Write a sequence for this structure.
């Protein structure tokens, strides 16, 4: 009888029959580990109990600073602060041929005024019109 030796050493791959709870926690969308264990147990999959914290979950639940109280910055009267939004160009023109609109909003009263524009170059004339309308209503725009 003769002994035959392989030219290269043999390689062995070993896998664990026990599943990793953290891996299943990640696979199942970061559900609580308690629920993951119950789910796996009901399906005959055994996992080791794992009390380690999931870094992704901790990062996702980290506390954020509040935006703060806006009441300190809110105007105390109409015209105290006007917010303006210009939107466009729209893909489809309005019935009047406009492709833009500009919105003026009084931060104190929440009053809104919308103008429809065919071109962005019309913004200064509508701003002037809005300021005149506010003045006629007795509300001088401050900001």
């Amino acid at each position: 009888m003769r002994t035959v030796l392989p030219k290269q050493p043999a390689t062995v791959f070993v896998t664990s029959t026990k599943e990793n709870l953290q891996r299943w926690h990640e696979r199942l969308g970061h559900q609580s580990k308690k629920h993951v264990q119950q789910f796996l147990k009901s399906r005959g999959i055994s996992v080791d109990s794992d009390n380690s914290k999931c870094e992704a979950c901790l990062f996702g639940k980290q506390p954020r600073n509040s935006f703060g109280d806006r009441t300190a910055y809110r105007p105390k009267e109409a015209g105290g602060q006007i917010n303006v939004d210009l939107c466009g160009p729209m893909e489809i023109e309005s019935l009047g041929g406009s492709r833009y609109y500009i919105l003026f909003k009084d931060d104190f009263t929440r009053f809104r005024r919308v103008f429809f524009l065919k071109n962005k170059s019309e913004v200064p004339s509508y701003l002037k019109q809005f300021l005149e309308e506010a003045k006629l209503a007795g509300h001088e725009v401050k900001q």
Notes: The chain is about 25% helix and 15% strand. Residues 10 and 50 are 34 Å apart (CA to CA).
